[in-house]
Amino acid sequence: MNSPEPVAPPLRRRGERMRRAVLASAVELLSSQGLAGATVGAVARAAGVHETSVYRRWGTRENLILDALTTELDAALPVPDTGRVRDDLLAFFSALARLLATAQGRALLRLSVERDDTLEDRRGPYWSERLDRAVVMVRRGVERGELASDTDPGLLIEAVSGPLFVRVLLSGAPLDDVLVHGLVDLALDGARPR
């Protein structure tokens, strides 16, 4: 007869150390086991904290998952400010391509679009917030006169990110600098002042 594995007592972590440990564990479980494996109990065990601490901080599993996804993606994709819109977009989308080329990045993207009834009402705001972070680069380009004043910042960002997401989600084709440069230049050509 197999006896259950002994469970180590949770560590006494608080504040930012606890938050970082829980979010890192959540991202790891989301990447390796998907939404089904990222229960509050599993995340708490992996992080070495009490389950009640997780509930106290995040309230729900959905809040925890969205915070983990948001924190991971925003840290991996800082919004550059080089002084040139093309350089900003190349840096940003090159970082996105590198992230999506990893197993963890692919898993996080799939989780961001995976159907899950508990997350559906939060998915729209999650993607809107990611888009709002990125459009800053385009708005600065418009303000500097690099792009036409009627440029739609969100559409330009989506025009570059969409093909990257499609490659990861549907075709599995590689992401490289040639692709990123081509997509950025194609999008910018349509937005330059005439």
Structure description:
InterPro entries: Homeodomain-like_sf, HTH-type_TetR-like_transc_reg, HTH_TetR, Tet_transcr_reg_TetR-rel_C_sf, TetR_C. Pfam families: TetR_C_11, TetR_N. Helix content is 71%, strand content 0%. The chain has 9 helices and no strands. The chain has helices at residues 15-37, 40-47, 51-58, 61-76, 85-100, 103-113, 120-143, 153-171, 177-189. The longest helix has 24 residues, at 120-143. The chain is elongated, with a radius of gyration of 20 Å. The model has no long low-confidence stretch (mean pLDDT 86).
Helices and strands in order, then pairings?
Elements lengths: L14 H23 L2 H8 L3 H8 L2 H16 L8 H16 L2 H11 L6 H24 L9 H19 L5 H13 L5
Helix pairs in contact: 1-2, 1-4, 1-6, 2-3, 5-7, 5-9, 7-8, 8-9
Low-confidence parts lasting 5 or more residues at pLDDT below 50? Answer: none
- Characterize the biggest β-sheet: none
Structural class: mainly alpha
In N-to-C order, the SSE pattern is HHHHHHHHH
Strand content range: under 5%
C-alpha Rg (nearest Å)? 20 Å
- The number of helices is 9
Keywords: DNA-binding, Transcription, Transcription regulation
InterPro entries: Homeodomain-like_sf, HTH-type_TetR-like_transc_reg, HTH_TetR, Tet_transcr_reg_TetR-rel_C_sf, TetR_C
Organism: Streptomyces tendae
Pfam families: TetR_C_11, TetR_N
